[in-house]
Amino acid sequence: MIVFESVTKKFGSSIALDDISLEIKQGEFVFIVGPSGAGKSTLLRILTRELLPTSGKVYLDKRDLTKLPHKEIPHLRRRVGVVFQDFKLLDERTVFENVALALEVRGKSNKEIEKGVEHILKLVEIWDKRNLFPRQLSGGEAQRTAIARAIVGKPDVLLADEPTGDLDPKTAWGVIQLLNEINSWGTTIIMATHNQEIVNTLKRRVVVLKTGKIVKDSKEGKYE
Amino acid sequence: MSRSFEFAKRNIRRTPIQAIAASMVMFLTFFALLAFLLVAAGSQQALRFFESKPQIIVFFKEGTTDQDVSTIENALKAEARVIATKFVSKQEALEIYREKNKNDPTLLELVTANILPASLEVSTKSPDDLKPIAQIVSKEPVVSEVIVPVDVIETLTAITTIIRLVGGSIVGFLLIFSMLVILMIIGFKIRLRRGEIETMRLLGASSSFVRNPFILEGMFYGVAGAVSSWIIIYILLWYFTPFLQGYLGEVKMLPVNPVFMMALLGVVLLMACVIGGLGSLGAVRRYLKI
Hints:
The structure holds 2 protein chains of 2 kinds.
Chain A: E1 2-11, E2 14-24, E3 29-33, H1 40-47, E4 55-60, E5 63-64, H2 73-79, E6 80-83, H3 95-104, H4 110-123, H5 139-151, E7 157-161, H6 169-184, E8 188-193, H7 196-202, E9 205-210, E10 213-218
Helix pairs in contact in A: 3-4, 3-5, 4-5, 5-6
Chain B: H1 2-14, H2 16-52, E1 56-60, H3 66-77, E2 82-88, H4 90-100, H5 105-110, E3 119-124, H6 130-138, E4 143-147, H7 150-192, H8 194-202, H9 207-248, H10 258-287
Antiparallel strand pairs in B: 1-3, 1-4, 2-3
Helix pairs in contact in B: 1-9, 2-7, 2-9, 7-9, 7-10, 9-10
């Protein structure tokens, strides 16, 4: 369970999030929508403790993330997988090695890594690309690699920041279907997007942000 | 930890030029350090050799009887500052002369036992005792000359002190310089891999997971430089041993004891780990904010 309690985030004089209160249950699929600069990415970055709110509290399973000691941040990040719009794949590592990194930071053995990565790459259907480098991949393949890396450690929550932003519609749908499947296993998914078509077709919970405020929060919502 | 070694290995492989540059700087530093340690140890040993040699040589006049010699010898033995005495007869002096000049027949032909004086070699506890003992002995009427090698010891002591000061300063400077070079190279690599480090952090990498490979990398450069300089120094020592031994004469310090060389390797390895580790730790603290 994720809870935002009166969260405000300021960058100097500009307000990115303005008194946000939000509750997300385990296993939910939530779209965070809104125009650029609405505060979508800030919201996600607070959940990974990349940012601290200026005021308010954020809970993950009753644990206040704003009071999390520095040394416990890695443990939080192992529970919260992130898929980035720009993929953030490491250019000098192959697809296999990129995905393996998520297990390496968790201290898994080589055997566990080999087994886990093979399983996940087959699941996202890029096993045959395992020896390629990111520059040799298409946008969809790169995003699948990024998703594989985010979920290989079996996180409780998956954050996706504009994961379809740079993809063509067909590839974007492939990515969404994959996220949908991951959600069906019980993983909470919070996806920031402004892809109207995807939001309206999937009919999941939609939280609309505008200038840092929640202006709408609806189950099976729409993005208008 | 094995993962850290793996990551450090990968970091080194990715930037071979910096790796070679760092190792070469460390090589120079440890080469100078080893050379300094060897020269310092050698000069110390030479000093000890001269200090422990019969330092005063008392030559007797022609016609001195055994009775005269034994009176002087007994008087010296009673002195607390005297460790030992050794009488060298005319015949023994000739044998020593022959041994020293065995390669020069002309010199051997000219000398007989009669023209060499008998002597008494006197060892003292400390070099400071040389002059007082020499003064006592020289008052004896049967003594023709007393040779006191104080100058050799004083010169050697001065040289040893200079070696320690100058060599120590140079090595100290090089150690600091190497540490800064490691700091700079590791700092450069950290900045080069900022994106990768950021991604690792977002994936949940702990501070030690990110930092340890850099620290190990710095230590590796130190160890690579230390081991290679030790090997080169050992080869040079082995190659120049005959020449150096001829130059050193009676002072037996070559070939260098292998146990001493292994101990030296241990010392430089330890220093390499400290210098490399401190340099990279400095870089990590300065450039890697996790």
